[in-house]
Structure formats: C-alpha cells, structure tokens
Amino acid sequence: MLPAHLHPHPGPPPGDPALAQLEAARATAHHGPSARRPRRGAALCLSGGGFRASLFHLGAVRRLDELGVLGSLRTISAVSGGAVLANLLLHPELEWPDADAGGGRVGGLEELVAQPLLALTRRNLRTPALLSKVRPSGWGRPDASVHVLADELERAIPWWGTDLREHRRTGGPVVLTGATEIGYGVSWLFADPHSVGPRGRVGDHRLGHAAPPPGLRLVDAVAASCAYPPFLGPLELDGADLGLTGGSAEPDEPEEVRAAIRRRIQLVDGGVYDNLALEPVWTDHATVLVSDGGAVFRGQAAGSVLARLWRLLSIASSGGQTARLRWLRASFAAGTVAGATWSLESPADLRRGTGAPSGPVLDGYAPEVLGAIHRVRTDLDAFSAQEQMVLCRYGYLVADASIRRHSPQAIRLDAPLRPPHPQVAAASDVMTALRDSGRITALGRR
Q1: Nearest Cα to Cα of residue 126 among 442, 382, 380, 445
Q2: Contacts by 95-100, CB closer than 8 A, 24 or more apart
Q3: pLDDT reading at 126 higher than 70
Q4: Could you tell me how far CA 257 lies from the centroid of its own chain?
C-alpha cells in the first residue's frame, strides 16, 4: 500500500552463526558493502528541530558554501527539520562544483534553496495536518495527517512532487533522508538516485532495501521524516509493494511477526531514533560535520503524571543523542575521524581559528540572548522574518567558529566572515525578535 498520493553493538558470542549474521547486518546498517571500505569523503549531518532547525542549518550551509565545504561534500544526511533543507539541496538546477577537482561555490544556492526555505518557513504547515484528524475524510486513516503535511509541502515546493526514483540532477552530494521505522525501532532511509543508480534506495537493515517504488514522492520522504508522534500519524507503506530484499531478523523471531511488520511499515520522524542523522555516515566517512538545531534540554520542575511521562521520554531521547555526540567527539580526539559539531548550545566565546582575525565571533550574544535562542520553539508553524534572521545569523556564526577551530582542513576557500542580517546583530534586536518565540499556539500564528 503505497502512499496516496548503532550504537556500536558488542560482538556475538563465538560460534553462534545466526547471531553473527544479525550483528554483521547491524554493523553495516544503512551502508551495505561501503561499511567495509576505507573512510572517504566528508558528510554533513543536519539534525531535526522543526523550522527552527531548518533556519539554523540554512545559516550554517551559507557559511559552508562560502568556505567551499558544501561543494566538497560526499553525503548530506538529515532528519525532520534538517531534511527540509537537505531536500531543497536536491534542486536539479543547482550548479555543483567538481568536488574531486577541489570544489568551489554552489551556483544558485540563494535563489533555489535559501529563498524557497524562507518562504516555506513563513507558512503554518502544522495546523492543517493536525486538523485532518478531526475531519471526516481523515477518520479511520492513521496516516491522514502525514499526507496532508506532504500536500502542504508540495504546494510550497512544487518540484518535490516528483517521484523519488525519477528525480535527476547533475553533481552534488548524496542526500539521505531519515525516518524512524516503528516495527523494529530503527532508522529507515530514503536515498536519492545519486546514491545507488539508477533509482536510489529505501529501507533499513532489518526489513531490507529496495529501489523507491513508483508513486513515492520526494515530498513523502520529507513528510515522513517530519511526522512527529503522537501529533502526526505515521506514513504507511506495504513491504510487499516495495519488493524489499535482504534485512535480518532476530534468530527466534516468529515469521508472522516479521510478516506483519513488513505488511504495514510505519514511518515517523527520523529524530525519534537519531535526531543528529549520524548513523548513516559515521562509519565510512573521513570527515563528519554535525549541525545540531535540536531543542536545548533545559531544567524543568516536577509536574503532573503526564508531564513526568513526557519528560522521561525526552530524557531518553536526549541521552541517546548525547551518547552519539560523545562517541563522535572521542573519535575526533583519537584521530579516527575528522570533523566538527555545532549547535544552539555552542558557547558564545568561540574564537576564530588560526590565521583568522582575533576577537569574539558571536557578537552581541550575551547569556540572556543565548537563553532566548535556546527557547525558540520546535514547530512547523510560521516563523517571522525577524526570527528567521536571528536563527540564520546564529547558524552562520557558530558553524564558522566551530569548523575553523576543529576542522580547518575541511575549508577549501579563504572567504572573509560576513555574517548576514546585521539588523539583528545587537542584543536588544535579538531579544525583541525572539520575545514570543518560545510559545506554541494551538491554531498557529498564520
């Protein structure tokens, strides 16, 4: 039924071939044979976090383009809000430089990526999707809201209506869009045709993989990646229609359970499993850059039973993300992989790397200003022009500071630092722009 429209695991006990097979599948999750090859190329991971993350990542991507990093990437891995931006980078008219020849700037980034993203994030996509559940047309359809979200996204970005398998472009990195497959609780990937010719690939290491089927649009992948439960229902696929091959079950798993999961594959927000979009790239890339626009985990006083349950789920999610970041940073320190990470929590006293002018990078971002940025809502509701400018400027600055300090070898071009939107450089301007940014309204802002 097509839509209408790692933590590293310990090795298996010696002599147990069934477990050895399962662990081999887990160890190469999402990669196939590539996990056994030497590390090569650079990957950019774009986290989830709704439109806040999309805008934060836009600022980072603008700076990475100026430094020649964007044009040298092998892979972009993204979930949820990050997937919104990543899939705009699939625009067929973008002019990507030859990464093997040293890279360069990406032609058309402002017109084809930045401007459409700014227009999209000024729209309220969340409320129409939520209201689909109370309309008669959505009764009895658990995936009604995700289809409405997909339709709203396509209205904003019409070319996303193209079938994933038919999308064609020249050059540029592979784009991996992550969702969470509920049955096995693992990361499901939508990979564009640039990844595996001629059609691309969808699937996970438990259920198997296949070429994207006819009727599965780019916008369906984006919507599935953004379908945060329980507010938005899962995208449902029928594994029989997909023609999945491979995959690995637990040795004692009843066949009827596996068949039921395959028959009704349910996909929700990719950030539920891996909000940093790290797992598809962390075993086989030489450089890993992580832009984290996810929510800042803040202290919270005791509340109701329901509030405590929600808090515990948030703690579990935050703990998994923290473990992944610690693993990655330990790998940086050990020299296993190069790279850098930046986030909404990046410290305000970062300095530019060697060879750059001295002085603070984050002009005007006092603790109270950073606190206001940390409180910006996670939502698919409309963001004002002032909110957009603050988030884009902040992403630009922290990406520059982090990559210069921690991964200067990734820089291909010596570009001066020209932070966008000087009209929100002052602390007072930021505080005014973000005065109401933490509040989520029931019916949306627009």
Answers
A1: 380
A2: 95/171, 96/71, 96/170, 96/171, 96/172, 97/68, 97/71, 97/72, 97/171, 98/171, 99/41, 99/71, 99/72, 99/73, 99/74, 99/173
A3: yes
A4: 30
What is the residue type of 102?
G
Domains of the chain: 39-434 (3.40.1090)
Tell me whether the omega of the peptide bond preceding residue 3 falls within 30 degrees of 0, making it cis. Answer: no
CA distance 364 to 347: 13
Is the pLDDT confidence value at 441 over 60? yes
| Both structure tokens of 398 | 């922290």
Which are the contacts of 251, defined by CB distance < 8 A and separation ≥ 6? 18, 19, 22
Tokens matching residue 345: 């929590």
Q: pTM, whole model, 2 decimals?
A: 0.87
Most confident stretch, 12-26, 119-133, 142-156, 173-187: 173-187
What mean pLDDT do residues 326-340 have? Answer: 94
Q: What is the DSSP string of 238-292?
A: -HHHHT-B-----TT--HHHHHHHHHTEEEEETHHHHTT--TTTTTT-SEEEEEE
Q: How many residues does the chain have?
A: 446
Give the bridge partners for 298, in sequence order.
Answer: none
CA distance 227 to 233: 6
If 0-12 CB within 10 Å is exposed, 13-18 middle and 19+ buried, where does residue 289 land?
buried
